[in-house]
Amino acid sequence: MQTFSEIRERGFVYVDKTEYVYQLVTEAKHVFLSRPRRFGKSLLLSTIESYFKGERVLFEGLAISRHEHDWESHPVLRFDFSGSSYSSYDDFTNQIDALLHGFERIYDIEPLSPDSFGPRFGNIIRSAYEMTGRKVVILVDEYDKSLLETVDDEELQNRIRETLRGIYGNLKAQDQYIRFSMLTGVTRFGHLSIFSDMNNLRDISMSEQFAGICGVTDEELHQSLDMGVRDFAKTRGLSVEEVYDKLKRNYDGYHFVEENCPDIYNPFSLLNALSEKRINDYWFRTGTPSFLMKMVKRGVIPLRKLDKLDVSVRSLYDVSFDLRNHASVLYQSGYLTIKYYDPEFDMVTLGFPNLEVERGFYEGLLNAYSGDGQEESEFSVREFINDVRSGHIERFMLRLQSFFADFPYDSFNLINLEQHYQDVVYILAKLMGLYTHIEYMISSGRIDLLIQTAEYIYILEFKIDKSAQEAIEQIESKAYMLPFKADGRKVVKIGANFSSATRTLSDWIIAD
């Protein structure tokens, strides 16, 4: 549920975030917060809305009730852009017009020119203040929805950006009539310049003080949701500790500040798992932005570095959704999170926060590479796993040949075909849960792909329009097996050739 009043009035569990709310409304006036989608931003704004409407009874027994303050009611202007589609400029302006017109009706305001959005917004703020005698509260949910949906249309995005600049400029121009404002979204606003006039906007996105303002911490999970965990355990015949462990591995691990940040659970997935008493990819299945998949396929996002991506802290403040600043995009969208911080160089290491995100990301990639043609991909992955674990590598290669043969013609990266094949095999291996490396560095060269299981080490070398024999000879001549000689597991060498004509494996050689 995303409505604070409904949760409280109907007696549902509420993970208490009101101490953060109190700190915000007493310490700041204009606030910005970036968090991934479905991370509780709407509920947070709903909580702040109830506070400023003076709905004191809803907060009884919560952290904020321990503080002395008045419960004065303020006019609240709430903008929610999350439920609309923005495929054209008319879609965008129609949504803005509808929102403004709604407030003009509430405060009996004679509308100005319909397309003068900035002046209309300013007029609403002044009129609400004059009518009530109390300063106005402005809450904006998913301010960047229209910008994210137009990332591939620069001209349209620029028109929307200019219009938003004119609207949000009123947060400074009408400051004397405003008690508090807060804007939330997925992306940070560093390069969007729509807030260029607002030098008093406090960005709490990477604030240690507000790191836990959205999502669920481990402490909150145990305090507020333990009953749900116990019901889960009883239904599935597991121990309570086993359920806590499953929840942590699948949904925990987000960090929104480089130092001293608690582990944060994805609240959407966590609550769905407790409700259905089943581990599943709830957050990821609500929709993966297509531009992320495009970035990987174009080589903008380095697939082999996603487990350990080193970037400067400064880069996380960027919002260059022009498909070039991959670190910023992946971090702000919630697909990567901070795993380690190096204070000496002000650098962070990014990685997948948990199993749900890693698994879902690779599944999305597999569908993107296969052109959504692999309807039985989950079944295929299971079969690949069984083949590799049991040492049936010939069957694995036959299955891989058939897998590529089903790919649609236009799904191939013809500019770098070898990289395309390597990527797909790597994605399959990651989904199989194996220890994998692309271009594994050793003293004598680079192994194209290394897969390790409990009993086997597979060394794979790929060629394009050459021969499997050449691939095997490269493995032998460069002694790729040497680092694993004392390992104890069986080393299997696989040389394979892809045909650009047939777009699949033409031949392969398997040798011990």
A few lines on this structure:
By secondary structure, this protein is an alpha/beta fold. Helices cover 41% and strands 17% of the residues. The protein is built from 19 helices and 15 strands.
Task: Describe the model.
The chain is an alpha/beta fold and 512 residues long. The protein is built from 19 helices and 15 strands. Strands 2-3-4-1-5 form a 5-stranded parallel beta sheet. The longest helix is centred in the N-terminal third of the chain and has 18 residues.
List the helices and strands and how they pair.
Layout: H1 4-9, H2 18-27, E1 30-34, H3 41-52, E2 76-80, H4 89-106, H5 117-132, E3 136-141, H6 145-149, H7 154-168, H8 170-173, E4 178-185, E5 202-203, E6 216-217, H9 218-224, H10 226-236, H11 240-251, E7 264-265, H12 267-276, H13 290-297, E8 309-312, H14 326-333, E9 337-342, E10 347-351, H15 355-370, H16 377-390, H17 393-405, H18 417-431, E11 435-442, E12 445-452, E13 456-464, H19 468-477, E14 490-499, E15 504-511
Parallel strand pairs: 1-4, 1-5, 2-3, 3-4, 13-14
Antiparallel strand pairs: 6-7, 8-10, 9-10, 11-12, 12-13, 14-15
Helix pairs in contact: 4-5, 5-7, 10-11, 10-12, 13-15, 15-18, 16-17
